[in-house]
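Show me any protein, keeping tokens residue-aligned.
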Amino acid sequence: MTYKEATEYLFSQLPAFERQGAGGYKPGLGTAVALDNWLGNPHRAYRCIHVAGTNGKGSVANLIAATLQASGYKVGLFTSPHLVDFRERIRVNGEMIAKRSVSRFVERWQTSGLDCKPSFFELTTALAFEYFKKQKVDFAVIEVGLGGRLDSSNIITPILSVITNISIDHTQFLGNTLREIAWEKAGIIKDGIPVVVGNASQPEVREVMELTARQHHSPITIATDDPIVLDSTRGADGTLSVYTIDYTGNIISQLGADYQVENINTVLHAIRNLIDADVHITKRAVKKAFAHVCEITGFMARWMVVGKRPTVICDAGHNAGAWQQLSKQLNCIECDHLHMVLGFSADKEIDKVLAMMPKDAIYYFTQAQSPRSMNAEALQELGSRYGLKGDAYPIARNAYKAAIKAAKPSDAVFVGGSFYVLGDLFKQVIR
């Protein structure tokens, strides 16, 4: 089996939420446990950090992984979704899983005779757990795919759980209220295992997190209650300089958006907990990790500047919670005119997001080549109800090219709204 055949099998033969939406979502841990037993429980061979939350979990997972790598450990990193290549999801010390490792695993699965029908994510999770064991990692940083309690990654017993924040998203699976969603996310809290919650400013979220931690006798830290980051400034080079109570001098973060301050504060609390668990992490390693996280782990598409004159910025924020922060960040861009290349998955709260958009920008409404994407013309129609003016482009690269052609050197182009739009563009026109 070739790598192409293996990935085609994973995406087309198995239920995949990212392609099918609700039809590809398979809650519950029964299949994950069966796969884990088939493989000999590989996740027990290394220490894990489990990361959940509505927004910021990718940034937090990558910053923790980079910190452990900079401290001299061999680190596995499991995240989703990918932008260009499936192998982005499974990395060891920043290097993507080998193509042959993917194809061999799929071959073994197809001839295993195991009597279960895994989803795409369940089989991918099992692949990651076994690969990390074969690579003899010291740590694995595991990002939850969707939710927490019933996510297939939730078979692990980590040394630390991290929950970034809670906002409304995936209501068809997790519930329609913050309380219901918080219960699902809090499902990763394990007996006696410390948990760091990045932000529990909503009373119902705090109540759920604190109650669940008490039930599991888990020490809980709510990062916003005890700020380690005291101040921050954005550099001309796109970095973020943060002043903290734990570190002499500023920490320079390569993740430069203002919304990263909360994520950084969460990670620094996670680092405190890891140090308390006798994980050797130096302050020098922390500063190196934050300054070079994208090179260390391969992280992409979080307020990522990919072009100058005009300035071109990509960000994968895709729900209302993320856009509460992104809309503020857009107002900080220094440019003559702002061009917005936007596409969304149809199952998101698009009305709420569009209501936050700048009215004076020029819009290029588009869609990804994914069954879950909202039609570009329908998005244009919806955008017009909120005073957003622009044309529809059914193909993302055409929208991007039109924005680049129209933008002057003193303008800025923002590209985002969906991982899948960004994925199409990174494959085709963005380098």
